[in-house]
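Protein modeling request. Please complete all fields; requests missing the sequence field cannot be processed.
Requester role: graduate student
Desired output: 3D structure, token encoding
Chains: 1
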Amino acid sequence: MKIFVLNCGSSSLKYQLFDMQDESVIASGKVERIGMEDAILTHEPTDKEEVKLVTEILDHTTAIEKVFDFLVDPKHGVIKNVTEIEAVGHRVVHGGEVFSDSVKVDGQVKAAIKGTFDLAPLHNPANLVGIEAVETVLPNVPNVAVFDTAFHQTMPQNAFMYALPRILYKKHKIRRYGFHGTSHKYVCMKAAEFLNKPLEQLKIVSCHIGNGASVTAVNKGQSIDTSMGMTPLEGLMMGTRSGDIDPAIIPFVMDKEDLTLNEVNSMLNKHSGLLGVSGIGSDMRDIEENMETNENAKLAFDMYEYRIRKYIGAYAAAMDGIDVLIFTAGVGENSNLLRKAITDHLSYLGVEIDDEINNTRSKQIRRISTPESKVEVLVVPTNEELMIARDTLRIVKSSK
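Delivered output (400 residues):
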């Protein structure tokens, strides 16, 4: 079965086409600047040269039509006809409390996704636009929605509730939802497979550390707590997001700096984190390159590492122990300095890493802990698109 995986933003989309017989990627690509006269489509067929097209693409339906044109193109294509695509999996950021698993899309599902627009106003409307665009272009192909929040729906109430008047939860569903669920689920499954142990017997702390970052406590295969909250702003210090702060800072800064609510929201989401502290940028590579000569870069790194380490300790306490510590996503997979700084301060948990292995770059899953370490420390490359494709295959097969 060939499955098309789609991740739509407000003015862009990313895609991958999988052959699920061997889970290989046949083609991938992206469309940027949707809505503009100079939109850019980048198509990367496996074992063929990348091709770019700059043209007018005014909406997502047109973007998807052009992507499908490339997929069947005699020179750049990878399939003979779009009818070879038997299902489409969509990344949907927020499922609210409605969705605890991936689901085949129908009218009720689309209505429920619309009901979550207030919870993810930047993402869910675009995700729904992608679903409806595919329905227009491929009307007879099943669509499956895969939610970033679904994996975290196993959190107990004492973990997902905020200490606010309960009426706010009843009226507006204000609670912790968590994100990166597709990634956390994937890397935990891969870790259990790698260690040849049942996932249901493991206590795992999964660290998805990229420009956006979150830590999740996974006990017996279920998420029991996660650092991101009602929105992706809570939790760790990130590339441009502040993470945890005293909520009283918001009205204080608004008053002192004469900021509007939109301006302070932009400050917390787009101008804080590594960027705000260092003054250099949001990319960890730039931070690490300047740490020895720039004290603000060093401070940003130290704060970033400290926040991650605190959450690891908290989740070890939440699960009454830890068997596996996972590093994944762009920074987690590639920054040996960050992994070293974090794990050097986890000796109380019995963590011990092999510096030589930790310093070795690889795109494969690997153990960086020593044989004597009481906790298995793994670097697990994430693959959210493959997880979406797998869920899509599972849902489509179960619905037949």
